[in-house]
Write a structure and sequence with these properties.
- The structure is a single chain.
- By secondary structure, the chain is an alpha+beta fold.
- Helices cover 22% and strands 34% of the residues.
- It contains three helices and ten strands; from the N terminus they run αββββββαββββα.
- The strands form two sheets. Strands 1-2-3-6-7-8-9-10 form an eight-stranded antiparallel beta barrel.
- The chain is globular and about 45 Å long.
- The model is unreliable at 4-20 (pLDDT under 50).
Length: 199
């Protein structure tokens, strides 16, 4: 009987905590500048965990028109500065430095929203694959992620072997609990939707 009560209490607490967490989510498009016209996205980091391979695992969610959207982003910690003496250091590219993956229904909703924002054909599901990206740090200091906000440029399908080459920006701020997914150029919109969608 006691075990049943304990399970019930844990379930209630989990529901309350989940509701509270979702209630405080940032608005997905609240970081956009209407004059610039970019479809930049921002998420609340709802869960962060340093995992054994030296990556931070970040569960990221946001609100968009009364629905919750999200994804998981794993990013390697401690990437050296990419800007040295005001010049880009081209030795600082890190292959497979970022992984993006689905968290289920919220990710399926996200790809539908991104498709709409990017003016692309609606996709039904977020990719079930773990997508890996090459990363370049746009920072003047080593990116110890828990210390603050950092900027990275991401590349997918570097050699365009899948005809899905794309670039965009990722700006994690673990200190303040947000992460930005920003556009590099409108020409990559179609490929970004394709690569994030179920094949």
């Amino acid at each position: 009987m006691k075990i049943k009560k304990l399970i019930l209490i844990m379930g209630i607490l989990s529901s309350v905590f989940g509701f509270s967490q979702n209630k405080n989510l940032i608005e997905l498009t609240s970081n956009q500048d209407a004059e610039e016209g970019w479809q930049d996205l921002i998420f609340t980091i709802t869960k962060k965990e340093k995992i054994d391979n030296g990556f931070w695992s970040l569960t990221c969610k946001a609100k968009y028109k009364n629905q919750i959207v999200g994804l998981k982003i794993n990013i390697v910690d401690g990437i050296p500065a990419g800007i040295v003496n005001n010049d880009l250091d081209n030795t600082r590219f890190v292959e497979n430095g970022i992984e993006i993956q689905s968290i289920g229904t919220e990710s399926d909703k996200l790809i539908s929203v991104i498709s709409k924002l990017y003016g692309q054909t609606k996709q039904t599901k977020f990719s079930t694959e773990k997508l890996t990206f090459t990363i370049f740090p746009l920072n003047r200091e080593n990116a110890t992620l828990e210390n603050g906000r950092f900027k990275f440029k991401l590349f997918y399908d570097d050699n365009n072997e899948q005809n899905l080459y794309a670039e965009f920006y990722l700006n994690p701020d673990l200190k303040n609990g947000t992460i930005e997914l920003n556009e590099k150029d409108e020409e990559y919109r179609q490929n970004i939707v394709k690569l994030l969608s179920e094949k």
